Amino acid sequence: MKLLASMEQIMRNKQVIFNGFIEGAPKVTDMEIKMSNIELKVPKGSGAFLVKNLYLSCDPYMRGRMRDNIASYLPPFVPGQPIQGFGVSKVVDSENPNLKPGDLVSGMTGWEEYSLIQTPLQLRKIQQNDIPLSYFVGLLGMPGFTAYVGFYEVCSPKKGDYIFVSAASGAVGQLVGQLAKLHGCYVVGSAGSSQKVDLLKNKLGFDEAFNYKEEPDLDAALRRYFPEGIDIYFDNVGGPMLDAALLNMRIHGRIAICGMVALHSYSDPQGLHNVFSLVPKRITMRGFLQSDFLHLYPQFLEHVIRNYEQHKIVYIEDMNEGLESAPAAFAGLFSGKNIGKQVVCVARE
Amino acid sequence: MKLLASMEQIMRNKQVIFNGFIEGAPKVTDMEIKMSNIELKVPKGSGAFLVKNLYLSCDPYMRGRMRDNIASYLPPFVPGQPIQGFGVSKVVDSENPNLKPGDLVSGMTGWEEYSLIQTPLQLRKIQQNDIPLSYFVGLLGMPGFTAYVGFYEVCSPKKGDYIFVSAASGAVGQLVGQLAKLHGCYVVGSAGSSQKVDLLKNKLGFDEAFNYKEEPDLDAALRRYFPEGIDIYFDNVGGPMLDAALLNMRIHGRIAICGMVALHSYSDPQGLHNVFSLVPKRITMRGFLQSDFLHLYPQFLEHVIRNYEQHKIVYIEDMNEGLESAPAAFAGLFSGKNIGKQVVCVARE
Questions:
Q1: What is the β-pairing status of strands B186-191 and B208-211?
Q2: Where along chain A do its domains lie?
Q3: What pLDDT, on the 0 to 100 scale, is given for residue B157?
Q4: Distance CA B349, CA B335 (A)
Q5: A73 contacts on B by Cβ (under 8 Å)
Q6: Closest to B269 (Cβ–Cβ): which among A258, A274, A278?
Q7: Which residues form the Enoyl reductase (ER) domain (chains A, B) (predicted)?
């Protein structure tokens, strides 16, 4: 059958190839732009579907897939193959009974112009509305849902709680802070530049925010912003900030461990020194993944879309143009180059 | 009134005095035996009561009261005053309407022959039965109750779970293991001598046990004993064992942080390096104190006494004779000298 495919259906397919396993933070040179060919036709009866990728999501968890030495919750990337990640895509051809050409979907896809998807992962059909398409990898995608379940299901928030969010202007943090404000909490965020601090205070509605790079003593900084202590720490960074937060938690405090972007190396991870605080303060520290809570996705969507439409939630994106910009956009996450959710636009439709 | 007290009521009162604040592990020289006098009569209308101390409990948490630099859940000891701790005592005189001479009580008392108690803490009247009196500071006291609430309320145990207990032959660990076996779990314990390992396997009913001092690689040891991983780690030690356990937890594993006897210094605590495991494995790590669960004490007592009377629970005590032995007994906890629950017998009645 393949031999009979018409030449019109063979397209050039630009790809971002994974060069090989790494140890520290991802660099631009760990990826490579390559051209290949793809037939825009799904093999009959395969159950697969073929998409044109529109928006690709750059997320810190992807670093874990660049290592092969520690079991992660997702398999490692395959050297020589395209990077995988969440994206918003348009169906071009389909042997999947639930999808037809023209459908818009979000889910795991390849970092390339076109992807043939055999085994969909967190695939969702997008019902078009007034919300920007790219938000389906951000506010309404994995990061937004992570914020939602992390806040409501892991942090056990109560009205009036004192909440601290690190990487607070990032894809997850910015929504955590806004949900916490809507819940009646007092919210302080940390970020790595004065521009981000300004966004937190003046656009995202945080009560206070600070630039951690300007704080020589993180413990003292948290004591200043939380003289009464912290009820909930939503941790996106780990490392010294988590250590400082441990010293400033209140009794029965809760720490949601969402990710550890500050962890520079897995083979020689920095030490945490203040875990002993867990006992006298009866702190609960819990790691979580949004994928354990997928049954809550519909109620999340309803909650966030309603608040977004009522202008009670905003979302900040950092949009890079063109697939070629993807390696730099991704590597930039680990030095905090992005302002808001990092997305790469491959095509607008 | 005091001047009228008869001379017969003035007694010599041997005491264990706290010498002053410390940083590292407690040493014998941090305490001192001293003689003082006490009038065996409670001031009229004071509401206080006076006890003769029979059994005193040596517990690792007491180290926290020997420091004055970090807020603990109990106030620091007062230099020059007797050490405070849990004990079993006999009421000698009472202005407390609930107590009369001859009553046996457990609760916070002084390390001395006689104590005048103004503000009772975790005071309980002992209903005499066939259970040894000293067990009211061990199996039926704070350590036993810690094991009970830690296991049932913090670990969320399920039948068939794989459970690891460190300091497993200690005051808390030995009961955790036995409760876990009664619950249908697979239980492995670690301890610091072959004699303790033998007790765990042959007297306390653990499925397996090992001497951590003979394991150059704790991670490898846990992999050997838990090829399928650990569902619940009941942590009594912190430090390198906690780090190794973090690498061996199963998905949705739970870690109860009960104490950190391996923490040699608070001002320069050892680092924990594997906390990043919390996210991919969605681990919950929770510090707790038995004092948050006091409403469960009656059901604990009923459960443990019933199983003890049916010979389904045993309890190992390390009993030192005489108040003079208390400093060495207490200091010995931090090098694992004790075999089982460390108690000091001051008087038998």
A1: parallel
A2: 2-138+316-345, 142-291
A3: 98
A4: 31
A5: 280
A6: A274
A7: 65-344
Res. A313: pLDDT tops 50: yes
Confidence band, pLDDT 50/70/90 cuts, at residue A263: low
First to last CA, chain A: 29
**Which chain B residues contact residue A268 at CB under 8 A?**
273
Chain B interface disruption, residue of A255, A281, A282, most B CBs within 10 A? A282
Nearest Cα neighbor of A291 from A115, A156, A121 is A121
pLDDT-derived band at A1, boundaries 50, 70, 90: very low
**Position of tokens 């730099």?**
A328
Q: Identify whether the C-beta of residue B112 lies closer than 8 Å to the C-beta of residue B15.
A: yes
Residues of chain A with Cβ-Cβ distance to B245 below 8 Å are none
> Taking CB atoms and an 8 Å limit, are A258 and B276 in contact across chains?
no
**Angle of CA points A135, A141, A147, to nearest 5°:** 110
Which helix (H) or strand (E) covers residue A341, if one does?
Answer: strand A341-345
Taking CA–CA distances from B73, the nearest residue in chain A reads A280
Distance from CA of B71 to the nearest CA of A (A): 8
Q: Which among A260, A273, A279 is the nearest to B289, CB-wise?
A: A279
Cβ-Cβ contacts under 8 Å, B257 against chain A: 275, 278-279
Q: What is the pLDDT of residue A14?
A: 98
pLDDT digits (tens, 9 = 90+) for A73-93: 788 999 999 999 999 999 999
Mean pLDDT over each residue of chain B, to the nearest integer? 93
Closest chain A C-alpha to B161 CA, distance in angstroms: 19
Quick check: B225 pLDDT over 70?
A: yes
The answer to whether A282 contacts B286, with C-beta atoms less than 8 Å apart, is yes
Quick check: A260 pLDDT over 90? no
Please indicate whether, in this complex, the C-beta atoms of B287 and A280 are within 8 angstroms of each other: yes
Options 3.40.50.720, 1.10.10.10, 3.40.50.1820, 3.40.630.30; which CATH number does A142-291 get?
3.40.50.720
How many CB atoms are located within 10 Å of the residue B80 CB? 11
Three-class SS of residue B156? coil
The confidence band for B57, taking pLDDT boundaries of 50, 70 and 90, is: very high
User: How many angstroms away from the CA of A314 is the closest CA of chain B?
Assistant: 27
At B182, the pLDDT band (50, 70, 90 cuts) reads very high
Fold of A2-138+316-345: Quinone Oxidoreductase; Chain A, domain 1 (3.90.180)
Cβ neighbors of A135 (< 8 A, separation 6 or more) are A141, A144, A315, A317
Listed in sequence order, the residues at least 6 apart from B188 whose beta carbon sits closer than 8 Å to its beta carbon are: B162, B163, B164, B165, B206, B207, B208, B209, B210, B225, B226
One fold for B2-138+316-345 and B142-291: no
Measure the CA–CA gap between B115 and B109, rounded to whole angstroms. Answer: 7
What pLDDT digit, counting tens, does each position of B307-332 carry? 999 999 999 999 999 999 999 999 99
Are B282 and A286 inside 8 Å of each other by CB?
A: yes
What pLDDT score was predicted for residue A58? 97
Chain B interface mutation, best of A246, A257, A260, A261, highest count of B Cβ atoms under 10 Å: A257
Please give the Cα distance from A139 to A300 (Å, whole number).
10
Helix axes B142-149, B173-182, angle to 10 degrees: 40
Measure in Å the smallest separation between the Cα of A96 and chain B Cα atoms: 31
- Put simply, the answer to whether A279 touches B257 (Cβ < 8 Å) is yes
Supply B20's token pair.
Answer: 């002053």
Q: With contacts defined as CB-CB under 8 Å, which chain A residues touch B287? A: 277-284
State the pLDDT confidence band at A261, using cuts at 50, 70 and 90: low
